Amino acid sequence: MRIKQPFAGTARPDSVVRAEYLSHGTLECYSLEASRRFYEEFLGLECVRHAKPAMAIRCGLKFHIVCLEVGDKLHPANVDNHWGLDVGSAEEVERIWKAAHDLRDEYRIGQIMDLVKQHGTYSFYFEDLDHNWWEIQYYDGIQHDDMFDFGDRYSAADLHEPNA
C-alpha cells in the first residue's frame, strides 16, 4: 500500500501559483499537551512542537498538519471536514474501531460512526477530543493514484441531478 511515486507533477503549468506540492494543513485544539498524547498514543502520529502555540504532526509522507492551540476559541469541525488515515487491511479498520470504543474515555473520543463500505473503501469516522474528525480507512490499492488516474468522472451539472 506504499505510495511509490509521491510526486505527481504540476497539473496546471499555466496557473498563477505553481507550487511544487501541497505541504500542510491546519487544525485547532484546546490543549497541545492533551492533543499530542492522543495523536502519538492513539493515532501513532509523529509530533514536534515548532512554535509556542503550535506543533506539527505527520504520518508517512512529507506533508504535515499544523495543530494550533486556541483554547476556548476552537471552531468545531464536522464529519465532512475530516483527516484520513489509510491502514493495511479491513481487519485493521475493525481493530481500530473496537479500540476507539474501548479507549473512548481515556482519549476523550467523541462520536464514533459505524463501519461502512463506501466510495471503494472500508472505513469509519470518529471525532477527537478537539472536535476534529478522522477517517480510518482501508482501500485495496492507492486511492490517491486511482482518483487522479481516472480523472473527472462527474461535471458540475451532475450535482443537481437526482442520484448523481
UniProtKB/TrEMBL annotation:
It holds the Pfam family Glyoxalase. CDD domains: VOC (cd06587). Residues 21-139 form the VOC domain. It comes from the Bacteria. This is Glyoxalase-like domain protein. It comes from Pigmentiphaga humi.
